[in-house]
């Protein structure tokens, strides 16, 4: 076996999700602007996925840069233990005001995974604080993705996820099928009967299961889960890390189902893609068990960079942009253009499904294509897209113009077409 230090590139980086011994060398990014990534060799790529869906206003938006510069000069960061500051206070209030439901408190952290863990901890500790030691399990769903840390791996899809290797190591939660039809609704009812008094909460990504396969479900599924949580007397946690901030066509996905969660998790596009920040919001039902005269009823969590002031300043500027530049209208236009732009793929024998929701366009292939080859062909056409498994998806910046979006959909269609030609050759 080759040791990593034998590698010719001299790099000390350990890259994510990559078998580094055989992977093609990564591209080197030099700078960004708008929807573009400029490589060190001078090539310029149109970014089709906005850096894992974070850069919703495009890269280097001047309003966000300016807000960060001002904050940087005043106070980049101060610990949130025993201290608070305006950017965090204001952001917490503004998030409570726009997230559906009567959200009362916001707990900040630094990544989506940690924010999901905090949500799980809030739900489970709520019951512990009330003296109920049995409610320690989370009901989550097949096809779901909630992060890569150990607690979140345990609530991802157990088979299809990236984490099946760790099966024996992970705590056991309850994984069900999303209640999409009569049969799966009946199975969910069974599970709730069987595990009812061991469950602390139901955890779901609303409307779109993102990294687990870009699968969509109907708003009815969420209404069903809200009703199930109410009936069981447990919490509904919505992981809006992928769906939040306009991605599905509404500011938050749950708005389309007319439901509110007890706990909501936000990250990814929260800062417009410039700074790692995440938020876990809880309503009064959840917080009620934490306010008491007992110190051990406090939420025992506190990330070092919690409520990072620079990140909060970026997030506040980002929220302003949603209003000032009417992002949701842009999402509607992107949606229509994705629909027409990707429709040529529908005819291909290699394509199992083409689907669009908000600013998400998905081409699902059958069978499994050679991913490295697809990536290389897309880069040759000047676009940055990161297909996974049998999915090619677009989640561009919400500011993307017609021309750049046409370039993206055109490249995806062309590459799918080339694959077809390779197959028959
Ligand atoms: C990306 C993602 C996470 C994890 O966020 P990280 O910041 O990568 O830890 C959790 N849930 C969903 C739905 C996500 O898309």
UniProtKB/TrEMBL annotation:
<dbReference type="InterPro" id="IPR005814">
    <property type="entry name" value="Aminotrans_3"/>
</dbReference>
<keyword id="KW-0808">Transferase</keyword>
<comment type="subunit">
    <text>Homodimer.</text>
</comment>
<keyword id="KW-0949">S-adenosyl-L-methionine</keyword>
<dbReference type="GO" id="GO:0004015">
    <property type="term" value="F:adenosylmethionine-8-amino-7-oxononanoate transaminase activity"/>
</dbReference>
<dbReference type="Pfam" id="PF00202">
    <property type="entry name" value="Aminotran_3"/>
</dbReference>
<keyword id="KW-0093">Biotin biosynthesis</keyword>
<feature type="binding site">
    <location>
        <position position="386"/>
    </location>
    <ligand>
        <name>substrate</name>
    </ligand>
</feature>
<comment type="pathway">
    <text>Cofactor biosynthesis; biotin biosynthesis; 7,8-diaminononanoate from 8-amino-7-oxononanoate (SAM route): step 1/1.</text>
</comment>
<feature type="binding site">
    <location>
        <position position="52"/>
    </location>
    <ligand>
        <name>substrate</name>
    </ligand>
</feature>
<comment type="function">
    <text>Catalyzes the transfer of the alpha-amino group from S-adenosyl-L-methionine (SAM) to 7-keto-8-aminopelargonic acid (KAPA) to form 7,8-diaminopelargonic acid (DAPA). It is the only aminotransferase known to utilize SAM as an amino donor.</text>
</comment>
<feature type="site" description="Participates in the substrate recognition with KAPA and in a stacking interaction with the adenine ring of SAM">
    <location>
        <position position="17"/>
    </location>
</feature>
<keyword id="KW-0963">Cytoplasm</keyword>
<feature type="binding site">
    <location>
        <position position="239"/>
    </location>
    <ligand>
        <name>pyridoxal 5'-phosphate</name>
    </ligand>
</feature>
<dbReference type="InterPro" id="IPR005815">
    <property type="entry name" value="BioA"/>
</dbReference>
<keyword id="KW-0663">Pyridoxal phosphate</keyword>
<feature type="modified residue" description="N6-(pyridoxal phosphate)lysine">
    <location>
        <position position="268"/>
    </location>
</feature>
<dbReference type="InterPro" id="IPR049704">
    <property type="entry name" value="Aminotrans_3_PPA_site"/>
</dbReference>
<dbReference type="GO" id="GO:0005737">
    <property type="term" value="C:cytoplasm"/>
</dbReference>
<dbReference type="InterPro" id="IPR015424">
    <property type="entry name" value="PyrdxlP-dep_Trfase"/>
</dbReference>
<feature type="binding site">
    <location>
        <position position="145"/>
    </location>
    <ligand>
        <name>substrate</name>
    </ligand>
</feature>
<dbReference type="GO" id="GO:0009102">
    <property type="term" value="P:biotin biosynthetic process"/>
</dbReference>
<dbReference type="InterPro" id="IPR015421">
    <property type="entry name" value="PyrdxlP-dep_Trfase_major"/>
</dbReference>
<feature type="binding site">
    <location>
        <begin position="303"/>
        <end position="304"/>
    </location>
    <ligand>
        <name>pyridoxal 5'-phosphate</name>
    </ligand>
</feature>
<feature type="binding site">
    <location>
        <position position="268"/>
    </location>
    <ligand>
        <name>substrate</name>
    </ligand>
</feature>
<feature type="binding site">
    <location>
        <begin position="112"/>
        <end position="113"/>
    </location>
    <ligand>
        <name>pyridoxal 5'-phosphate</name>
    </ligand>
</feature>
<dbReference type="GO" id="GO:0030170">
    <property type="term" value="F:pyridoxal phosphate binding"/>
</dbReference>
<comment type="similarity">
    <text>Belongs to the class-III pyridoxal-phosphate-dependent aminotransferase family. BioA subfamily.</text>
</comment>
<dbReference type="InterPro" id="IPR015422">
    <property type="entry name" value="PyrdxlP-dep_Trfase_small"/>
</dbReference>
<protein>
    <recommendedName>
        <fullName>Adenosylmethionine-8-amino-7-oxononanoate aminotransferase</fullName>
        <ecNumber>2.6.1.62</ecNumber>
    </recommendedName>
</protein>
<keyword id="KW-0032">Aminotransferase</keyword>
<feature type="binding site">
    <location>
        <position position="302"/>
    </location>
    <ligand>
        <name>substrate</name>
    </ligand>
</feature>
């Amino acid at each position: 076996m080759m040791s990593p230090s034998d590698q010719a590139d001299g790099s000390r980086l350990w890259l994510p999700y990559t078998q580094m011994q055989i992977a093609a060398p990564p591209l080197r990014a030099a700078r960004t602007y708008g929807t573009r990534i400029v490589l060190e060799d001078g090539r310029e790529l149109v970014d089709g996925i906005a850096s894992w869906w974070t850069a919703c206003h495009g890269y280097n938006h001047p309003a966000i840069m300016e807000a960060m510069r001002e904050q940087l000069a005043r106070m980049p960061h101060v610990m949130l233990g025993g201290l608070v500051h305006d950017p965090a206070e204001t952001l917490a209030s503004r998030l409570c005001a726009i997230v559906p439901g009567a959200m009362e408190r916001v707990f900040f952290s630094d990544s989506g995974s940690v924010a999901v863990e905090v949500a799980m901890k809030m739900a489970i500790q709520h019951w512990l604080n009330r003296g109920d030691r049995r409610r320690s399990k989370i009901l989550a769903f097949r096809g779901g993705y909630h992060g890569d840390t150990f607690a979140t791996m345990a609530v991802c899809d157990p088979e299809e996820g990236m984490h099946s290797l760790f099966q024996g190591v992970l705590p056991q939660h309850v994984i069900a099928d999303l209640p999409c039809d009569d049969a799966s609704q009946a199975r969910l009812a069974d599970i709730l009967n069987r595990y009812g008094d061991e469950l602390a909460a139901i955890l779901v990504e609303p409307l779109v299961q993102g990294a687990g396969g870009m699968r969509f479900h109907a708003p009815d599924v969420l209404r069903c889960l809200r009703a199930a949580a109410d009936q069981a007397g447990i919490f509904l946690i919505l992981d809006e890390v992928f769906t939040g901030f306009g991605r599905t066509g509404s500011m938050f996905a749950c708005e389309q189902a007319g439901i509110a969660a007890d706990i909501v998790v936000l990250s990814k596009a929260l800062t417009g893609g410039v700074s790692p920040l995440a938020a876990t919001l809880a309503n009064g039902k959840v917080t009620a068990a934490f306010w008491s005269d007992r110190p051990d009823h406090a939420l025992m969590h506190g990330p070092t960079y919690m409520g990072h002031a620079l990140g909060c300043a970026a997030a506040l500027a980002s929220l302003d942009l949603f209003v000032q530049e009417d992002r949701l209208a842009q999402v509607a236009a992107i949606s229509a253009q994705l629909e027409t732009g990707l429709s040529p793929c529908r005819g291909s024998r290699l394509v199992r499904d083409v689907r669009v929701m908000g600013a998400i366009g998905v081409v699902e292939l059958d069978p499994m294509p050679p991913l490295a080859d697809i990536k290389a062909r897309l880069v040759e056409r000047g676009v940055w897209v990161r297909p996974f498994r049998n999915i090619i998806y677009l989640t561009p910046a919400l500011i993307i113009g017609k021309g750049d979006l046409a370039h993206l959909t055109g490249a995806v269609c062309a590459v799918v077409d080339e694959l077809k030609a390779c197959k028959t050759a």
